Amino acid sequence: MPLPLLLVPGSLCTDMLFQAQISAFKSDREVLVGDFSNCDSIETMATKVLSEAPAEFALAGLSMGGIVAFEMFRQAPERIERIALLGTNPRGELPEHVRVRQQQINNVAQGGAESLKALVSQQLMPKYVFDSEQRLKLEPLVTEMALEVGTDEFINQWRALASRTDSWSTLKDIHCPALILCGVHDAQCNEKLHRDMALEIKHAKLEIIEEAGHLSTLDAPEQVNKALENWLNS
Q1: Where are the alpha helices (DSSP H) in 171-215?
Q2: What parts of the chain have a pLDDT lower than 70?
Q3: Which helix (H) or strand (E) holds 167?
Q4: What's 41's DSSP letter?
Q5: Is 134 within 8 Å of 213 (Cβ atoms)?
Q6: What pTM was computed for the model?
Q7: DSSP 185
Q8: Which residues pair with 208 in a beta bridge?
Q9: How far apart are alpha carbons 135 and 84 in whole angstroms?
C-alpha cells in the first residue's frame, strides 16, 4: 500500500496550489491537503493537521506549509516517513518583518477583502513572480485563493508567522528521505537558503527548478511532480 501524501499549502493558498500534484498522484495513493484554519499559531496549526492525518504519511509543505511541516516533525517525527520542503524558510521572523505584518493585519482588519486584494497585488505578487507573462497567468489564481481563504484566516496566518519558532536546529534531526526544492527565481525564500538547508539534513536531495519563482507547484508543475515522484519512490 503506497504511503499517503499529505500536502500543506502556503499562506493564503487553498488546494488549488496543488492541483497538478493531486491529479498526478491520486491514482496510486491517498492524497490529502492539510487544513489549519481557525488556528493563530504554527504549533496549533501543526497539531490540527496531525489530528486529521493518517497514522503515517509522506509530508510536503510549500512556504508557510513548510513552516507548519517543521513543527509537525517536532511534534510527531515517528509518523512522518518522508518530508519535502518547497520554497520555505526554517528561520524565525525578523523583528522588522513582525512590524510589517502587524501593519498589514491592521490594514486588512480595517479594509476587508479589498485591502486583502491590494496586499496580494502590490506586496505579495512582486515576490512570487519573475516576469510579466507569468504574473498575468498567476495573479488571478493567487487572488482567487486569497479571497477564498478570507480576511479572518489572513489575520490568523500572519499572527502565526510573526510568532513562529526558529526551526533551523530541527533540520539536523531529520533522518527520513528529504527533498528540498526551490525555484531559481524565488525572491521570498531564495536558492542559497535552500542549499544551506540541504546541507543541514542528512541525505537530503536538493532540486532547483529553473523556470519557477516562489509558487513552484504552479510555475513548473511537471518538474515539481517529477521531483516529488522520485522522492516518494526513494
Answers
A1: 191-200
A2: none
A3: none
A4: S
A5: yes
A6: 0.98
A7: T
A8: 182
A9: 26
> Which grid cell is 153?
484566516
* Strand bridging mode 80-86 / 57-62: parallel
Would you mind telling me the total number of residues written for the chain in this entry? 234
Radius of gyration of the chain (CA): 16
- Residue 203: how many other CB atoms lie within 10 Å: 11
Strand partners, 62: 86
Residue 123 CA to residue 11 CA, distance in Å, equals: 14
CB atoms within 10 A of CB 134: 18
Cell of 127: 515576490
Residue 197 CA neighbour count, 13 Å, CB half: 32
Map grid coordinates 502565526 to a residue. 160
Sheet of 57-62: strand order equals: 31-33, 5-8, 57-62, 80-86, 178-183, 204-209
Q: Which helix (H) or strand (E) holds 182?
A: strand 178-183
Grid coordinates given for 185: 527565481
Amino acid at 26: K
C-alpha cell at 226: 517529477
Evaluated on CA atoms 159, 165, 166, 172, the torsion sign reads negative
For the stretch 24-61, pLDDT in tens is 999 999 999 999 999 999 999 999 999 999 999 999 99
Beta-bridge mates of residue 209: 183
